[in-house]
Known about the structure:
Number of strands: 0
Helix content: 55-70%
Radius of gyration: 17 Å
Number of helices: 9
Amino acid sequence: MDESTRAHLLLKAIQFAASAEVTALHLIIHQHSETLLPELALRIILTYLPESTDPADYHDLILQLANGQIKAPQRSVSQINGPGQNLSDYEARLRVRRLHLLPIAEPQEIHNGCDNVLEQFLVHRARQIDTETGDLFLAQQLLQPFLTAGSYLQSWMIAYLLPLIRLSYDYYPKRD
């Protein structure tokens, strides 16, 4: 696959992520797994998928990316024609060069000895959800299915997320 086709493909994947079209993103990653490698796909999700997106919508995709075996999505997609079709090859390559994808791990996670890419991604994503939406329960929903992924994730959830949820519940109980 030539560089211009890769650029168009990457822009299409980013647009699907930015518009929270998880099924279309999953399909394009499945169809072009030799170009959209797992780490690149995780970085696209981390950078462009809105934090308010329901984690249940992309649990399967994350798990498949972590395992390196991308299967076709279970839900059907009517079309995966996305933006970028009208861009010239030069414009597409230029836009790709200007992209800034977030790293999988935050710097403090590297220093804490966490070397599992899935755990690094999940912690970074949970922090993003907390920072951008303040919805700790959404962050908990993201992490819950992956708690067996490793001890660092379990420790992080117990030491960081659960105390914040408890604090939030104690100080701001739901009003009827």
